[in-house]
Amino acid sequence: MKNAHYARRTPVLLMVGTAIIFGTAQAAPVGTDYPAAQQAAMSQLMVDISGIPNYDERGAASNVIQDFHVGAGASITSLAWDVNATAYAGSYLSEMKITFTDILGRGVTFTPGNGDDFDGTVDYAGFQDLRVLGQVFTVGADGILRLEFHDGFKDLAFDEPEGMWNHGTLTFGIAQVPEPPAIAMVLGGLLLLASSSMPRRSQQRVFS
Fold first, then answer.
1. Rounded distance, CA 26 to CA 203, Å?
2. 132: burial class by Cβ within 10 Å (0-12, 13-18, 19+)?
3. Of the given ranges (37-51, 87-101, 127-141), which has the lowest mean pLDDT?
4. Which DSSP letter does residue 147 get?
5. Rounded mean pLDDT of the chain?
6. Which one of 74, 95, 120, 133 has the lowest number of neighbouring Cβ atoms within 10 Å?
7. Residue ranges per domain, the chain?
8. Beta strands in 8-135 (DSSP E)
9. CATH number of the 12-196 domain
10. Handedness of CA 37, 179, 190, 21 (dihedral sign)
């Protein structure tokens, strides 16, 4: 008989598929239009996962999928999490997963309850710099970051959830691709700086 367990544990981030200046602003859900200047300032995406069920293995039609616009070619560089999850009897917390990818499915699978091979309710919190793991990946030209909430193995009936993401947030660090005008301004500033630092020849006057 599996018992409910309460703890804070360190998760595992696993690479799946072919994956290749943080601020405080949030990225926008798909369908939200912001001026280009405001989009350029966005450097974090905070996702509230409260009340999302965990149904089936990755790719199943029953799974909850959320799309967010984070900027064309943006890189996902980190993940912070503070979540509470329940695995129902017959399933495991170690099987509850969230995969975040581009729309082609290339990205990272996050397993906060890695190693917790039991059911019950657990709090998980932490931070991972994906650059340290070599798992930074870039979204496509459409700028879409896709989250799929799924299970590692289907233990229960096909129409029955394996667990529930009760409450909490995921916060993604996002490195934006500078727009051409911004790049030009940076290059111009560097050239100006280089010019001002060059030694000047002294001018000599000739008296007769």
1. 56
2. exposed
3. 37-51
4. E
5. 78
6. 133
7. 12-196
8. 12-16, 28-29, 44-48, 52-54, 64-69, 75-87, 96-101, 107-111, 120-129
9. 2.60.120
10. positive
